[in-house]
Design goal:
mainly alpha, Four Helix Bundle (Hemerythrin (Met), subunit A), two-stranded antiparallel ribbon
Length: about 280
């Protein structure tokens, strides 16, 4: 009977002290940024129902920008945690899978009726699958360092930003609704395919690690000009950025294949058998 009803063991004093131990703010700050991005994604769904399409689009864009900040902030503050990684993935699914699909549904996909809803479901499920695969690949210890500069498939924030290209075109006066709805549906299915594909997309994590001195001032000027154009013509610039990003995917694939061949050649040369030493003369 003692096995069925084991004696009650009081909680240890050490566990009680650990429970009430103060948590450093550096561990909380990245999660606060993630939650702020989640609030923006959910708010975008409310705004689009109220007819504030442009504001809803901006909310998702800001959420995508914050998604790029929270991870870097966590690494900068040495506040990375498994909890933060899981929270970030859940936030990304809501913001870039659910909220983005819902905004596109209200905008134009509802004109396609059942097919439009299938497009929304496909985009959301593709984002969920892409994020699940990303979480699994993070824990792969055998992944070479050079592969960390590439995403496997289009990342979720970039997928949402590119999927909203019809919205940018609409804001600059291009007729997208009505007869253009089928093309929008096919385009979003194409973006959903890119997110779950194994097409390598350049991550740019090491971009700008070292900059030659003679390029510093031209980079400053280019950033100022780009910022001015972005604030003056935001949706025109977003449309150009999306088109340029899609056009550069083949360049990233070619770069990935080249590095893959060089890595394979290096491994083959490292494990190649050494020639048999000559015997005594």
């Amino acid at each position: 009977m003692s096995d069925l009803f084991p004696p009650f063991e009081p909680e240890r004093a050490e566990s009680r002290r650990a429970r009430f131990k103060p948590i450093p703010f550096r561990l909380i700050a990245p999660n606060l940024v993630t939650l702020l991005a989640l609030c923006l994604g959910l708010t975008a769904m409310r705004l689009v129902v109220e007819g504030k399409l442009e504001t809803a689009t901006i909310c998702i864009l800001v959420a995508a920008a914050l998604d790029g900040v929270d991870g870097r902030l966590a690494r900068l503050l040495k506040g990375t945690s498994r909890f933060g990684a899981e929270l970030d993935s859940l936030s990304d699914f809501v913001n870039f899978g659910v909220a983005t699909g819902y905004v596109l549904w209200i905008f134009v996909l509802h004109d396609l009726r059942s097919f439009g809803w299938i497009v929304v479901l496909t985009l959301a499920c593709a984002m969920a699958l892409r994020l699940a695969r990303f979480n699994v690949m993070i824990d792969d210890p055998a992944r070479p360092d050079w592969q960390k500069n590439f995403f496997v498939g289009m990342p979720a924030p970039a997928g949402a930003i590119t999927a909203m290209l019809p919205l940018y075109l609409h804001f600059v006066g291009v007729p997208v609704q009505g007869c253009g709805a089928p093309l929008v549906g096919l385009y979003i299915l194409f973006i959903a395919f890119l997110t779950i594909s194994r097409i390598p997309c350049y991550a740019g994590k090491t971009l700008g690690a070292r900059i030659p001195r003679d390029r510093v001032l031209p980079i400053f000027v280019a950033v100022v000009v780009a910022a001015g154009l972005f604030f003056a013509y935001p949706f025109e610039m977003l449309a150009l950025i999306v088109l340029a990003y899609l056009a550069l995917i083949p360049v990233g694939v070619a770069r990935y294949r080249k590095l893959e061949r060089e890595h394979a050649a290096g491994v083959a040369s490292a494990i190649a058998p050494v020639g048999t030493p000559a015997g005594p003369g």
